[in-house]
């Protein structure tokens, strides 16, 4: 989904659309979601819309180094496990010049997501921009493999935001993470996080994240980047990207919440999705990761309906969120 559409929907409760084909009405008219997934004539989505006459699905965000007239430069980073250095890149405009000015979104000019192609080693960080338009952040890799780097940003004056991606290869002994089945429970630091709800392919689904500590509901979740939690969703297989935000209005500074945060998510296809939930308690950011399968036959789910059943507690994926890397 387009970050600009995300902004526009902020006050309405967000629907996270994997496809660019997306109507505001979907948020309140679930029966139209499936219809919206089929090729509509949708003004304002020209860049992501299919070519004229084509009946294929709209391009998903986060699958290209170029979109909306912007291009991601090659990413410089240490090339082996353990080497200390910096991760550096620029966002280039149509003339090939680095973009110097951005519109802040969710309290940052640019959000950087780095994840290994098997879904492990997730990081969500915020690099710094220098006067020449180079973004950089101190960096080292703790595991070998091929990584996807996603830059999520809104250039100043742009109609909407973009999510661009590149791959980076890291030398070392490579051990692929075992494929994970559904994982609805995760632990991050002292916190247990449960994901409740089901993903319906081709439809909108409400997912609820519930945070507890030693069996007690956590009610002191703090605003982080303008929300009580952030969900990054990637499609397993191609890592199509979506940076989802919770339903509800932006929290007041100093407000506390918990133990649940609701998200509305649209999964474009049946299959597995990798979900990463960032939240903050006591000034510390934690990440909990989940795996959910979207059911092909479940498109009729009503997104307005709260999930009724408690999810079974599967084995936690034990993905530590690299909390130290958040750089705030
Ligand atoms: Cu961010």
Describe the structure.
The protein has 328 residues and is mainly β. It has two domains: 66-170, Immunoglobulin-like (Sandwich), CATH 2.60.40; 185-326, Immunoglobulin-like (Sandwich). 4% of the residues lie in helices and 36% in strands. It has two helices and 21 strands. It is globular, with a radius of gyration of 19 Å. The two termini are 26 Å apart. The structure holds copper (II) ion. Copper (II) ion is lined by residues 108, 111, 124, 126, 225.
Short synopsis of the structure:
By secondary structure, the protein is mainly beta. The protein has helices at 3-9, 33-37; strands spanning 15-17, 66-67, 70-72, 85-92, 110-116, 123-125, 128-129, 134-139, 145-153, 162-170, 185-188, 191-196, 199-200, 204-213, 216-217, 221-222, 230-235, 241-244, 260-266, 271-281, 284-295. It folds into two domains: 66-170, Macroglobulin (MG2) domain (Immunoglobulin-like), CATH 2.60.40; 185-326, Immunoglobulin-like.
Shape from CA axes? globular
The percent of residues in helical segments reads: under 10%
Estimate the mean pLDDT confidence.
Answer: 79
What count of structural domains?
A: 2
Structural class of the helices, strands and pairings? mainly beta
Poorly predicted runs are 1-56, 298-328
* Count of runs of 4 or more consecutive helical residues: 2
User: Which molecules are bound in this entry?
Assistant: copper (II) ion
Distance between the termini: 26 Å
How many β-strand runs? 21
CATH level-4 homologous superfamily of the largest domain: Immunoglobulins
CATH architecture identity of the largest domain? Sandwich
Rounded to an integer in angstroms, the radius of gyration calculated over CA atoms is: 19 Å
What does the oligomeric state look like here? single chain
H-E string = HEHEEEEEEEEEEEEEEEEEEEE
Provide the CATH topology of the largest domain.
Answer: Immunoglobulin-like
Return the CATH class of the largest domain: Mainly Beta
